[in-house]
Amino acid sequence: MITPAGVFSTIYTFADGTDGRLPSAGLIQDCLGFLYGTTSVPSDGLNPQGTVFRLAIPLPTVTTPIISPNGGDFAGGPVAVTLSCATPGSTIHFTTNGVTPTADSPVYTGQFLITDTTTIQAIGTACAFNPSAVASARFVIYVVITGQAYPSGAGTITGDGGVERRSNALLCATANPCYTFANWTEGNGVVSSRPATRSSRCPIAHWLPILHSKPGPSTRPSPLWLQEL
């Protein structure tokens, strides 16, 4: 056998015995790397004895695929992902649902987009090679949720910030002096009447002014000296 480095190596010696003296045909190799052949031991020339054999040789391993970019936090999305493998002739199989990929998993054919938080795992396979180790990368797609105030300056909103896409952010509304919190709205509808709410959109906090009543005319009787005037 000639190794990938070009070195000749003996993998089996046919000696006298029940396995035959010599190979009677060339060796063939299957996709798993096994070698198959036959041997013969001449007897009466009509019914030679021999055997069919299989030789298992150590297989090289496919290089672990590269996921690019290699995961991380991304605002908004989508994110374009590319897979590659350095082993010539290899096939990349990958998953996006958290399941470890196998040779039966979908085959990578080109760059693809992800729009939600996803874990990508990939392996490389090739004929006469062991499968590669599993490459894995987690992509977190987040959005920034910011509440709005109406009227402007009537209060403050805290807790808004980046959360994973399709997740809710906790928002808290605090009224400034002379105002009281009314409700949160999204679109044309009220979604909460409590100062703290969770939302995956950008809701509006409404405040109302606090009205102070003015004192009316006094109803107390005037002093006698004023009545006499």
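(the above was protein one; protein two follows)
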Amino acid sequence: MSDKRVRWVTLAVIIAGAAVARVWALVRRGGPRTASMVYDDGVYVAAGGLLRHGRVPYRDFVFVHPPASSYVVAAVSFIARDPDHLLLTMRFVMIAVGLANVFLVMLIVDRHVGPIEAAVAGVVYAVLPETVFAEHTVILEPWLNLACLAAVAAWLFGGVYYSSTSKFWMVAQGKTMESCQAEMAGKSTAQKVTPFVVVFVSEIIIGWALYGLLVHMSTFTLRAGVISAVLCWFGFVVTTLTSNYAFHGRRPMLTVIDSVAWLGAFVIIGAIVGWMGR
């Protein structure tokens, strides 16, 4: 069996185990309707039901939580209209969120450490009592975990993107694989790591700036986050990159490659901030 197939089989087994743990925690004590509940279960279900009927959080009723979960509940309420059925359906939706978190944990660790460590991290997250409990209730923590993991995934996007376009990037830079390897060999570990740290910090600042923009707009939605991110990218990133590269005499292809990389990062960050913010 190839290494790639082993990784996918391992991923499937761990995600299946995570699903069993969360479903078992949901049904083992009298069924999903009587499983452990917290205060926020009722808060989010009630807020989603009100939103479906046109009542907007913060404007029409008191709501002290971020809005993303209430929008998800409102969307699900078009299918499960009865409050009892809505709570039941949302609990299974949260299990799906938990499985997405397991996948992202393993993806991130696999890309930066290795497949064995990814399997260990996936198992730990899959069976950790706190995550098993949180990810079958309608509370904020699973969404926060998903947002944080997605933010890291945005950082990883650059690595995946540049790996897939490395040949074109080297041609645009006027370099060869041999010259790049020789250049990296002459650098210390700190010099090699520093650019990745700078990019990660930069993306945190981008998220903070987009959040401030949406605060002034008083609009926190997935659509608003993505549109704002694309406009900021087009108005500021593309223009500055193009101007700087023109003065440096860089090839147009390099401008295109680097601009698209930042577009991906902006869209991912904007989607997270718009969906989960407030």
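Reviewer note on protein two: The two ends are 47 Å apart (CA to CA).
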